[in-house]
């Protein structure tokens, strides 16, 4: 008994969610921007479907023209149908392939399509009825129009009410029985329900794809980020640099700074992994404070190595910045045995950006300059084949 109750509870809950567009409301509460994009997507999809439907209506209208009604009323309806289908086909096509999607315009087109084409179909239907014929063409046009839009419950109620009213007028004119009206009511209710389901499914498919894309993007960003410092990792720096190379090409010059913590392996053995991680984090913080105004391309390149890429900076400014980075870590005065933690810095020259090879060459140059700084006494800068020792620097333990 409980299983049956649970089953019907779920059925009722899903029915309510479909009718009230609950999924769209949840998307709106979760992220208003995503909701706006969803509505834009649905109306744009309506425009695509409307374009196809107008083509079908235009063809059917031309076929109907070959069996043109004899009365002026019917001729006016057919002409209005063909002209309106042609105009809306052009408008929907223009809106569908426009670079900017105007939701208000698409909504206006949706209502205009329904209003004008419904009027044309009603005129043709009345003409056929007055001529003693069953309005089968009007019924065909109505089915086509009902197949077209992806609407919310209020829009489908409005449009279905028009169709039901037309059917009721026809029923009164032809003196139909109660069964006819019940059937028309059933068809109208079924259309409203099917329209709500189609809308719900379309919205959920789009939202699912959107959330999947966002999850993939988050995973991609996480895979490119160093978990300890929050900086780019080696993969992330390579990806960012590839984007710059692709978008800017030869319009930029770049230079590379490579930073290494002096005697960090000894620090690790002396204090353990937790203290080493804390030291890395503090060094990273110093680097970010100094370098962030100049570049976003800051990476933890290895265990205790950091790489910074600068765009359109002359060599003198890059060397000055490298000295500020060295001094900031020295000023931090992180205890290391009888001394403090220091860094050695290798600075490359500048070069025109000509793809990833430029970055690779400059990184190798910065690595060579780093080795010169290490061999020159550490806690200094290597540049142009020489180690530059600042007079106020502290000696390395």
Outline the structure in words.
Strand 8 and strand 9 (386-388) form a beta hairpin. With 397 residues, the protein is an alpha+beta fold. The protein has 13 helices and nine strands. Helix 11 (273-291) crosses helix 12. Strands 1, 2, 3, 6, 7, 8 and 9 form a seven-stranded mixed β-sheet that branches. A two-stranded antiparallel sheet has the order 4-5. Helix content is 69%, strand content 9%. The chain folds into two domains: 2-217, no CATH class; 234-388, Alpha-Beta Plaits (2-Layer Sandwich).
What structural keywords apply?
69% helix; 397 residues; seven-stranded mixed sheet; Alpha-Beta Plaits; elongated; alpha+beta
